[in-house]
Write a structure and sequence with these properties.
The protein is of the alpha/beta class. Helix content is 50%, strand content 15%. Strands 1, 2, 3, 4, 5, 6, 7 and 8 form an eight-stranded mixed β-sheet that branches. Helix 1 runs antiparallel to helix 2 and helix 3 packs across helix 11.
């Protein structure tokens, strides 16, 4: 497992646990008491390390390579996933994946950024940074869901939209704006869940929902801490300072009314107990979807518009 800088104490305890396990299995030694002591020590260390994470440390957790990705959620909390590809105009952008699936017994349209799990898959999915065709695919899938009166669930996990020239040549800004508009005007329930990193327009293009949920250690911001530091101080090394002033944590955004719920992660982060974290997301999605299905299409659209218009008045928030 990858250990973040501030997780060094955890690495030492984990290493000792593995050493004791190996000793017991190799020599037939009863090591149960020592393992129990070490597991208690590990739990205390986890509490100590994770109880007061800084915004920059939360940013690192949100980007952890072992954190569950959209494909993991599709395999774990959804069933009968039927992938749909292409924007019917240019190409299929694998940075965004989506299709019909079932959440419990409810048919839904799931759309999400996919970062990939290793070097090969990250290159295939372009690290979750979509090009215009990715957002146009998302629009196509949302409209298809609307046609059949099927709720939409989006899973947000991206550093931002693809920043290269080819994206601009194919209308990146327009595609993001059109996807955001589609989210706002959709006549079916739309729940967005930020499962890792919610960066810039690439995130909001899938996140303008009736409900916006965030995992406890995820982040959501108009710009990355590194990008902000490079602009303000001409030095990305000031990223920790930028993370502090950006107010990008789930806790800050809940206080400001930007999101609706913070989903608790297992002790040590979603990367440490991914299945438990995904189960928590499933419970929250199910609960919010049940509530939203009581509203008619006009109410859903009006609620969404009112919700985001209210955010324009957040400048007076503390």
């Amino acid at each position: 497992m990858q250990y973040l800088d501030f997780e060094q104490p955890l690495m030492d305890v984990d290493a000792r646990i593995e050493e004791i396990k190996h000793l017991g299995s190799a020599d037939g030694v009863n090591v149960a008491d020592e393992l129990e002591r070490l597991h208690k020590k590990l739990e205390k260390t986890l509490v100590s390390v994770y109880k007061n994470l800084t915004p920059w440390q939360k940013s690192q957790v949100a980007r952890h390579e072992a954190r569950p990705k959209t494909s993991d959620y599709l395999n774990h909390i959804f069933t009968d996933f039927c992938p749909l590809s292409g924007d019917r105009a240019f190409a299929d952008d694998k940075a965004i994946i989506g299709g019909f699936a079932k959440l419990n017994s409810q048919t839904v349209m799931v759309i999400g950024h996919e970062k990939g799990h290793d070097t090969e898959s990250r290159l295939i999915h372009n690290f979750g940074m979509a090009k215009p065709e990715g957002y146009r695919k998302a629009i196509r899938l949302m409209k298809l869901a609307e046609q059949f009166q099927i709720p939409v669930i989006t899973l947000v996990d991206t550093a931002g939209a693809f920043p290269g020239m080819e994206g601009e040549e194919r209308g990146q800004g327009q595609a993001i704006a059109a996807s955001t508009e589609c989210c706002l005007d959709l006549k079916v329930p739309l729940i967005a869940c930020i499962i890792g990193e919610g960066g810039s327009g690439g995130a909001i293009a899938l996140a303008a929902g009736n409900r916006i949920l965030m995992l406890e250690n995820s982040i959501y911001s108009v710009i990355s801490p590194e990008g902000c530091a490079s602009i303000l101080w001409k030095d990305f090394k000031n990223a920790p300072k930028a993370a502090e002033i950006l107010k990008l944590t789930a806790q800050d955004l809940k206080k400001f009314g930007v999101i609706d719920e913070v989903i608790a992660e297992p002790l040590g982060g979603a990367h440490r107990q991914p299945e438990k974290a995904m189960d928590a997301v499933k419970e929250a999605l199910t609960r919010h979807l049940t509530a939203l299905q009581k509203d008619d299409s006009d109410t859903l659209v009006r609620h969404r518009h009112d919700k985001f218009l209210a955010m324009t008045r957040l400048e007076n928030a503390d």
